């Protein structure tokens, strides 16, 4: 499963958030960089939540985004962990996760959901941020996706929870053969994810090797 | 995999909105373009009696808008402090009274004046009585909008000032300047609603310019003359709304509805008296409305008899209002969803402009539309009053739905785009529940306004049909009676039900935050 971005560009008004980024990855991708460097915009372009102004994205050689067109996110077989938990407040945690699993047969979905909820230590009501954050990660892991896009998924969790959830994410990705596109500020996290590292600054890849490297 | 050839659903709904809302006016302009005689063109510039009537109407509505906003602000500043306990919910009950049509207030105050004297002795002129009633009718709306204006003041700005200055200085130097744009929007909206309404002034034998449009069409049956006669008023109302559109956007985009309650402010005695007086005026109007109608209606058996007699009218009113609400919501959603995108400013203007159109013009426009080869089948059908209501009130629905969308976390929508198994499931399970408070409020507003609509309905209602509003309006010219009061109570019950839906929706509009399951509580 490969992601290939070619000369990807996206502007908001006069600000060029992503500026001519190109890379091809067959495995996990870690994106690092300072705030405002365009990491989230790149992730949203990959998710199909934004349409590129120039350049293209393809999954396994199939184009999914071109200038003026983006395949609907639902059809990309991806799942996302957003910067905020983004849980639908009118649904319980279980309903959030179940809804995210789409057409997975009921029995299979139940078993998978119970297993993940138990491993993440979450109940049906997410009142506080740490519970909601874990629930949003479980929702993404439960979804039958080929790529999981994570935007600083462990921010504001304590060290113990971070470690637990990080292990769960990597373990699930390995077990299911899913690739991660992982944004983080934490170099320690970045170093533990095997795969390509993209270093971004001001919308461009920066650093040695044109901003791409391998851990 | 290439982009499928498909037009966005919201674009189609926006086009439908434009056709339904602006179709009557466009037909009127086309008809006027063909028929314009030189004497009709003279109507464009008011002179003589029409000029003085025009100026008096503008002054009267200006005074009504300014006074209602001022009283509303004073009352709201007291109610806004009730952010804990039962008062926090009770204050939104005022919104229940917001959609009650102004002519019911007029009926109630006419009842208070008594049968012996049509106008009480202590009232110097019809204009003042008319303005007093209009102020009372607009007060619930002004209090609600003023509370939204106060909600738009960020708590840190308040708290920072409170550490240095007394509360009254904070109110004057921080709260008022920050809330001023939203208050200006409130004044502009009330001015436009007042200047385009002729129901209350005419009940007090006061001629106003908006009635002139209706009278011109009734006398000549010439849409061109009606349009040219309306042009000066249209110019003023459009200019006011154009100037206020940025403020309206700020007002609807406010996010402070669920602010935590700060320590109650300590105001000087004179200001507390002013706040209490303002709340007293609001309550007086509501009390007169309810008590006068209940007393005039008589025993429950008499009310039941009145309701039974007016059964078909009540059915017509209810079905027209329900259909108008249902028909208005989809196109209103289409426009609201596109207001933050490209051409957002244009769509804002498209939503605000129809509010400036006097109601008779919508009715005359619909008749002109039916005279074109495209829609002759509509003429004389029950669809006409529904279309008139949709044309007039769909923009209100669009503004409310837009406010709801502004308050909805965009990541929740992004999440459903990623996780939905099919678009229909995404809509039914997530998107509709997320915007349900806004849809409820918008539907309630359209229902209530449609049930009380008079100016356009009077022109397009098919023969043999009558709404409660038309019956009431006709009866009111012969004075207050038990039957009229009974019908007034029926109308108030309908409005209260719709108002409750609006209040419930607006109270929850900005409060959908939190995490999973919290919305179930």
How would you describe this structure to a colleague?
The complex is a heterodimer of chains A (215) and B (521). Chain A is α/β, with parallel strands linked by helices and 215 residues long. Chain A contains 6 helices and 12 strands. Chain A has helices spanning 39-47, 93-100, 106-120, 129-142, 159-176, 187-192; strands at residues 3-12, 15-25, 28-32, 54-59, 62-66, 69-70, 78-81, 147-151, 179-183, 195-201, 204-205, 212-214. In chain A, a hairpin with a 2-residue loop joins strand 1 and strand 2. The longest helix of chain A is centred in the C-terminal third of the chain and has 18 residues, at 159-176. With 521 residues, chain B is mostly helical. In chain B, helix 1 (9-35) crosses helix 15 (311-338), helix 19 (410-419) packs across helix 20 and helix 22 (468-476) crosses helix 23. Helix content of chain B is 74%, strand content 0%. Chain B has one domain: Orthogonal Bundle (MetI-like fold), CATH 1.10.3720.10. The interface between A and B is large, with 46 and 31 residues.
State the main characteristics.
heterodimer, A: 215 residues, alpha/beta, Rossmann fold, seven-stranded mixed sheet, five-stranded antiparallel sheet, globular, B: 521 residues, mainly alpha, MetI-like fold
């Amino acid at each position: 499963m490969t992601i290939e971005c070619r000369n990807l560009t996206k502007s908001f008004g006069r600000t060029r958030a992503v500026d001519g980024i190109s890379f091809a990855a067959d495995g996990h991708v870690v994106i690092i960089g300072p705030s405002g460097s365009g990491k989230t915009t790149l992730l949203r372009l990959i998710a199909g939540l934004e349409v590129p102004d120039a350049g293209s994205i393809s999954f396994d050689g199939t184009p999914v985004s071109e200038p003026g067109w983006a395949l609907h996110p639902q059809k990309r077989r991806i799942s996302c962990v957003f910067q905020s938990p983004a849980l639908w407040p009118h649904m319980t945690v279980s309903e959030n996760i179940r809804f995210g699993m789409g057409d997975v047969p009921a029995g299979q979905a139940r078993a998978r959901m119970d297993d993940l909820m138990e491993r993440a230590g979450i109940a049906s009501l997410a009142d506080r941020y740490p519970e909601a954050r874990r629930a949003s990660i479980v929702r993404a892991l439960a979804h039958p996706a080929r790529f999981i896009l994570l935007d600083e998924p462990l921010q504001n969790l304590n060290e113990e929870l971070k470690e637990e959830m990080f292990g769960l994410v990597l373990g699930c990705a390995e077990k299911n053969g899913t690739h991660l596109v992982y944004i983080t500020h934490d170099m320690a996290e970045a170093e533990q994810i095997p795969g390509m590292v993209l270093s971004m600054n001001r919308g461009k890849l920066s650093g040695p090797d044109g901003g791409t490297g391998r851990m | 995999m290439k982009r499928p050839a498909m037009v966005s659903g919201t674009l189609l709904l926006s086009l439908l909105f434009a056709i339904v809302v602006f179709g009557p006016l466009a037909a009127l302009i086309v008809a006027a373009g063909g028929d314009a005689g030189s004497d009709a063109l003279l109507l464009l510039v008011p002179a003589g009696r029409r000029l003085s009537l025009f100026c008096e109407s503008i002054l009267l509505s200006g005074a009504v808008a300014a006074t209602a906003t001022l009283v509303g602000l004073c009352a709201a500043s007291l109610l806004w402090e009730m952010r804990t306990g039962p008062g926090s919910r009770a204050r939104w009950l005022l919104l229940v009274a917001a959609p009650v049509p102004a002519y019911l207030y007029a009926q109630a105050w006419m009842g208070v004046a008594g049968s012996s004297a049509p106008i009480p002795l202590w009232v110097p002129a019809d204009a003042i009585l008319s303005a007093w009633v209009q102020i009372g009718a607009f007060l619930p709306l002004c209090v609600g909008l003023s509370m939204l204006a106060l909600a738009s003041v960020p708590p840190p700005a308040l708290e920072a000032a409170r550490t240095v200055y007394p509360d009254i200085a904070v109110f004057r130097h921080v709260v008022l300047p920050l809330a001023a744009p939203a208050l200006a929007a409130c004044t502009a909206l009330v001015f436009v609603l007042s200047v385009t309404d002729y129901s209350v002034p005419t009940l007090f034998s006061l001629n106003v310019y908006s009635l002139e449009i209706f009278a011109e069409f009734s006398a000549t049956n010439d849409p061109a003359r009606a349009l040219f006669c309306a042009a000066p008023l249209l110019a003023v109302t459009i200019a006011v709304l154009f100037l206020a559109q940025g403020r309206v956007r700020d007002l609807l985009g406010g996010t402070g509805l669920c602010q935590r309650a700060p320590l109650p402010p300590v105001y000087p005695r004179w200001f507390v008296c002013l706040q209490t007086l303002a709340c007293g005026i609001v309550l007086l109007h509501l009390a007169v409305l309810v008590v006068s109608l209940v007393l005039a209606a008589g025993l429950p058996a008499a009310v039941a008899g009145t309701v039974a007699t007016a059964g078909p009218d009540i059915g017509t009113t209810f079905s027209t209002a329900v259909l108008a609400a249902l028909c208005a919501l989809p196109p209103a959603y289409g426009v609201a969803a596109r207001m933050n995108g490209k051409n957002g400013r244009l769509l804002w203007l498209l939503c605000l402009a129809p509010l400036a159109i006097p109601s008779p013009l919508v009715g005359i426009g619909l008749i002109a539309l039916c005279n074109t080869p495209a829609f002759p089948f509509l003429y004389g059908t029950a669809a006409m009053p529904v279309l008139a209501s949709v044309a007039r009130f769909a923009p209100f629905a669009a503004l409310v739905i837009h406010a709801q969308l502004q308050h909805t976390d965009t990541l929740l929508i992004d999440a459903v785009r990623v996780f939905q198994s099919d678009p229909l499931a995404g809509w039914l399970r997530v998107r509709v529940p997320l915007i349900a408070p806004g849809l409820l409020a918008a539907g309630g507003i359209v229902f209530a306004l449609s049930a009380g609509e008079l100016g356009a309905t009077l022109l397009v209602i098919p023969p043999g049909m009558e709404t409660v509003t038309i019956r009431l309006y006709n009866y009111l010219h012969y004075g207050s009676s038990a039957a009229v009061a009974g019908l007034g109570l029926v109308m108030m019950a309908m409005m209260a039900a719709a108002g409750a839906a609006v209040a419930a929706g607006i109270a929850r509009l900005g409060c959908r935050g939190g995490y999973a399951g919290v919305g179930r509580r």
